[in-house]
Each structure stands twice: as structure tokens, then as C-alpha cells.
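User: Fold this; C-alpha cells only.

Assistant: Input:
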Amino acid sequence: MHRITGRAGGDSLIEMSPTDSVNDDINGYHQHGSSGSGSQQEQSGIDKQQQSKDSVFFRDGQRRIDFVLSYVDDKDGERKLERRKVYESNLEKVGLELETEDKMESEDGKTYFVKIHAPWEVLATYADVLKIKVPFKANDIPDNSEMPMNWLATPFRLPEHIMHPEPDYFTAPFNKSKSDFFLIDDKETFFPPSTRNRIVYYILSRCSYTREDCADRDKKGIKRLLNNGTYSSAFPLHDCRYWKKSRDANCESERYNLYRYWAGFGSFFKEQPLNLVRKYYGEKIGIYFAWLGFYTEMLFFAAVVGTICFVYGFLTFDDNEWSKEICSEEIGGEIVMCPLCDKKCGYWKLNSTCNSSWQSHLFDNVATVFFAIFMGIWVTLFLEFWKRRQARLEYEWDLVDFEEEQQQLQLRPEYETKCTNRKLNRITQEMELVLQRTPTDIVGKMFVCWATVILWISLIIACIIGVIAYRLAVYAAFASIMKDNPTTQLQVVGPLITPQLATSVTASCINFVIIMVLNLMYERVAVWITDMEIPKTHLEYENKLTVKMFLFQFVNYYSSCFYVAFFKGKFVGYPGDYAYMFGKWSKLRNEECDPGGCLIELTTQLVIVMTGKQVWGNIQEALVPWLMNWWGSRKARSHPESLYSRWEQDHDLQGFGQLGLFYEYLEMVIQFGFITLFVASFPLAPLLALINNIIEVRVDAWKLTTQFRRPVAAKAHSIGAWQEILNGMAVLSVVTNAFIVAFTSDMIPRLVYMYAYQPDGEMNMKGYINNSLSVFNISEIPLANRPEDGENPLWFNSSITACRYRDYRYPPGHEKQYSHTMQFWHIIAAKLAFIIIMEHVVFVVKFFVAWLIPDIPSDVKARVKRERYLVQEYLHDYEVEKLKIQLSQNSQDGCTCTPMIYPSLPRHEVLSECL
């Protein structure tokens, strides 16, 4: 029999195919038949057929494998062998139990596996140290959270046994000396596998690999052993194959349930089994998927409103008076426009921008203002409701006092090894490790770190300036090539292709490529800077790394959008005195916005960068791990299936990595910036984000369940520094959208014209185009700005003496010729007034909504208070009852009474009844 490693339907190529069920009973836990395993079994002396390929237990079938280390022999074997010997010896001294699988028993014949089991004493000791909360009493508060019209959500629900795998308990930090206070029915299953592997990893990361007489305190922890190649990998085990339940009844098969009800794309409309995710992967990963799911749900409302605004723009095409004027032969066909670049650009007629004018109306209309205000309120509702959702999860997942009681205990091993002194903590009155730093060290490291950050941000800005220079230089080339409009002969797309569009699209694509290339360098730079700072805790490390990476990404992704929105077309000058990017010597004249406006270019930029990032990200997230797993498993395909044990299957998967979750957050926060900072230019952005996130949830779940090793469970009571970043972007989005409506959109100039400058006094836009274009005498255009011979179109002749340009300036012959008119200043005043009014309205509503919605639901507050009260009361009664039992036992000399009230019951049940 040969083991098939592929699976129809795009599943992992690493593990057993679900279609390969022939002789599957041979691999059952209690089967002893042979299946041609060859000489490897003869050499090993251990019949691997005795173990199921999904067994997560030692050879005795009793002790659970909580962690696995793997290594291979190499040329530097002696030094590494010594390190492993000492390290494993120290692990055993701590109380961990080890079992080694010889390389001859592995499917590749060269990998050793060290299986680690944590017995009850070790788990209890470190659960006490880490203040892990465990149940002590069933929750007696009635659940009144039934929603009205609850039956409407039935199609989106998962089975009850998947959504609520555990009953609700009141919990308290574990205390080893009071273990009988807690509801311990079975010590082997009291701590779930995620908690067990977290405890073991805590030990592994702090255990030394040098002898006790060695004074080198820096040589400790599994992380350093992985970096120097002593071990090749360290990981906890999945509990089964993802597409099939384990044949071992002692295995939970939670991975199978996650794959079936969570990771499948057919479940895209279903709720997420967050309790099961938390139980299997830990709270840190669970809270990420809770946030991502909540964010996706809130996007639905923004997407609906954005789509309605877009449809409004589509349905009001017939009311678009200014586009009709641009497209008409009588108005737009008679208006001759000044050249848009020097030498290579000729004169052109206004009606050549007819299509872009119609396209701009889809996004630049009255609904734009409404949607910008709506999104300012939406983002506040999203953040406030998330705080409530997060507070509920903190209580349900026993994270209320996590930071105070646990996080400070979990110092980073890298920090501990650098600490040389101890000082008294005034709060705990205990001696704690401190890092001795001189003022020179602090100032020097801060200077190096932030100088590096500024250097890399400057590099990004330089790249953006390079793209702008490309736009300026290439526009002239496109204008010269397309002056006879050869593209108009193309069907459908021909009339849409203009020099402006060609320049904008190519520049956006180049900018996207630059963004992707620079992203490859950011991780190492940000990690290197953060490592230099030696943060104290894991939370502090992640927060510092988050800030630096977000600064890089913010400048990288949004710089080009900020340029198009707030700089392009704003500092152009006029035909007699144009402005240049680097001075006139550069001959790179600043870009102008066509009469359709710059908003359509901002939309183009946003669509290309946002959509390109999302599509590329999803392909990369799903395809790269799958291909790497397929390539890494090519040698395993020739081995019998029965030799492919649980730890070998997981070993061939990809490691999730320290920054795995970090990049998931970063991807979503960057997307959040696109749909909030620039949403006024593209109301369909929330719809695109919604579609992407529906896919993203399942892609992340699929790759985590099928393509990656099981991550070490970690706790987190919130989304960390990302919360403050989202709050900052929410405030900034109000400002950017107000400026986009005021300065990038043509909404304010149109309103000023309609209410103050319409010549007939009517409330319409007739004559707006002629009013918004100034006149310049062609004979006064400097020679350096005039088109070269042959660049002008055939219809241009000497009878045309004036050209038009987009501005509000006095005409030639006026006493203030070419200076700004009063209408220009009225428009500026109206823009500033709109910004002030919009910002104040939105901020007042934001602060009112934030005040109106409490961060913590009232029922959660009540439950937290109830739990704290019960902990104090029960502990007091527990101590009293324990004292009574001790006094009864001490006085039983000469006493025939039973020392315990319920001698037939376990002690924790006795105490519960007494209480």
C-alpha cells in the first residue's frame, strides 16, 4: 500500500487524503497488523502500527503529548548534541516527561522527535504562577440575552454543540494549595490542550541549555536553540486530521469541527464558532477572528449605504448639467483649452473629456457629502460597539484581570537575560528584575531607532516623488502619441482612453509594485529596531512593533492617495506663469486636473492599490503555504501511510510564526484606512472591503486549520495597540474626507455658482462650465510653454486667439488681468466654512454617540462584580471549612464521630456542599 498525499478539491497535499480509506482500520489505535512498512520497523524495534496515525499520546497511550521538538544530525552535531542533552535534562528536572522517537522511526529516516508531556504537578505549579483562571462554581446568573426576532438568524447559526462546547462557570485564578476548592473532575482533562501547550512553552522559553556551574545566563530558551539550529522546530500537535475525526476516542477532534464548520468556504454566511476557536488556538487568535467577524458585519451597513450613493449618482445622470455642457458640440466643442504640458502637448477641445466627466459624476455628487458624514458616524459606532463586544469577550473568556495579574508575570526571556539588577516593586512589595540602562544608552538607542524609522519613511517618500516625476514626464509622451486619438478606433474602450487615464493607471500600477517591493524590507527593519529596545513584556514588544510597522505602511500605502487628493492640480499656476516640480530647470510642470476633476483620478488610484493589495494578499496567503507544504512533502509520498504519525504530519506543515497574527491585523487596518480616509472619493470601497473580508475570514481559517502547525496558545484581552491606531484613523478620516469634498471634489464651486453666480438667478447649473474656465491670450504664452510644430491638432488655426484653463482669474485686458477674481476667494471661504462645519457636526455626533454607548454592557458589569464577590465569599468559607476539618481531625483521638460530613464524596464536592 502506498500513501496518497494529494486530495481532490484543493485540500492539503501534506496529510492523508480523505479518499484514501482503503485498509484504514490497519491504522487504528489497537490494530497490530503489518502493512509493508519495510526495514524501518525492523530496525526501530517499535511497532508503529500499535499507534494510530492521529495519536497524540506517548507509546503507553496514557500520557498526552503537549509539545514536540524535532532535530536532525548535522556536521556540527557534537556541540548541538551537548546542548540538547543538557536542555532536555533540565526540562526533566523541572518535571516534564520526555519520549524520543529515533530517526529510523520517522518517515524521512533522519529526523528525531522529542515528545513532551506535562504531568499534573507541573501543570498545577505553573497554572498557579501564571494565574490561570479555572472554574469553581457554575454560573447562577440567568441569561436574559435573548434577542427579539431571534428566529430570523437561524439560517446563519451553527449547531449548538459547536457554538457552546463548554458550560458557563464562575472562575478564579488557580491556586495549587487550594486545588480542592476548584471543580476538578479529572486531572488529565482539567486543563485543555491549549492551556497545556501554553504552560509547556512558558517552561521551554525559560529553561537553560547550559550546566548549573556555567555563569552564562544568556543561554536559555527554545527560541535561541531554534535560531542556532540545535532544534529544527518546536510545536504543539493538532488533535486529528482536519477532514476526518480521530479514531482514538481520547482525542477531541476539534480540528475536524473547525474545518467542517468554520474553514469551509461553503460556510461564508455562517457565524464563527469563536468559543471553539478560542479553546483550540487560544484567546489571542480567538479575539482576532472575533474582531474580524465584527468588522465584517459592520461593513455590511456601510456597503449598503455606499451602494445606494453610487446608484444615486448613476440614476441622476440626466440631471448632470455640467457634463452635458462639456459633451455638447455647441459649448464643449467650441471651447479651446490651453496645453496641459510644455512642447509636446497641443491645444485641445473641452468635449474630449466628455467620458471622464460622466464617470466623475458617479462619485462626485450630492450623495458624496452625505456619505462622508455617514462614514464619520459609522466609524464611531463601529469602534464603540466593538468595545462592548470586546468587554463581553473579556468576561466570557476569563480575561478581565489578565493584564494586571498575568501579563506582567510573562516577561520576555530576552529581557530576563539582559537584567542584572533587582529592585523592590512598591505595589507588590516583591523584588523584580530590572534592566540597568544608563542615560547614554537610552538616548543612543532612541536616536538610532528613530533615525532608522525616519530614513525608511524618507525612502518611501522619495519613491513616491519618483512616481510623481514619472507622471509628469510620461504625460507629455502619452499626449504626443495620442494627439490624433488613434485609440478612438477601438470599440467600447477606445473613447475612454485619454492621456490622463493612461498616465493615472500606469502610475498607480507602478506605485503598487513599489509598495509591494518595499514591504518585503519592512519586517526585518522594524523587528531589528524593536529588538534593540529590549521591551519588557510580550505585550510591550508587540505594541512597539505595531507602531513602527504601521508608520511604515501608512506612508507606503497612502502617500500616493494623499498626493492625488490634496496636491495634484492645486499648485499649477496659469499659462503665463506655470509652476514646476523642481524649478523650471527640471521642465517637469505640475500636473493639472482635467475639467472632470481630480476626484476620478483619486478613485482610480484607490481602486488599483486597494483591490490589488487585497487580491494579491489573498492569493499569497492561500497559495504560498500550500505550495511550500506540497514541495516539502514530496519525499514523504513514497512512505507507507502507517508510518506518517501525528507529529510527522504536523512537522511537514508551515510554522505560523511570531508575526503571523500581526500581519493579519496590519492587512485589515490598512484596508480600514482605505475605506475611511478616502471613502468620499469612492463610495463602493466598503462593498469591496466587505466582499474581501467574507473571503478573508475563511481563507485565514482554512490556512490556519490545514496549512499551518498548531500555534502556541497565547492570551490577549484586546486587540492591543491596534485599538488606538483605529481610533486615530477614525479622527483623521473626518478631516481627510472634509478636505476631499472641499478641495478635491467640485461640489463647493458648483454650489457657490448655483447660489451666488448663476446669471439668470435660477437654481440650476446652466453656464457653470463657461464660468469655471478662465481665458488666456495665446500670443502671451511664453515660447518655452508653446506646443512644437506638428503637435497641434488639424482643426487649430491662427484664427483662434485665446485658450481656456481651469481657474478663476480675470481675463486679458482687465486692469487686474490674470489675478484671482472675487469668486475665487468666495469659493475658498466656502470650502473652509464647509470643512469647519462638517468637522464640528461629525465630531459632536461622534462624541455624543461615544458618550451615549457605554464601553462595558451593564450585564457584564454585574457578572464581573458577582464573580469577584463570590470568589471572596467562597474563599472565606473554604478556609473556614478547611479549618473545621483540620480541627475535627486533630480532635478525633477518643472521638468516634466521622471527621467529614460526606465521607463518600470527593473533597471538592464535600466543600461545595458545605458552602
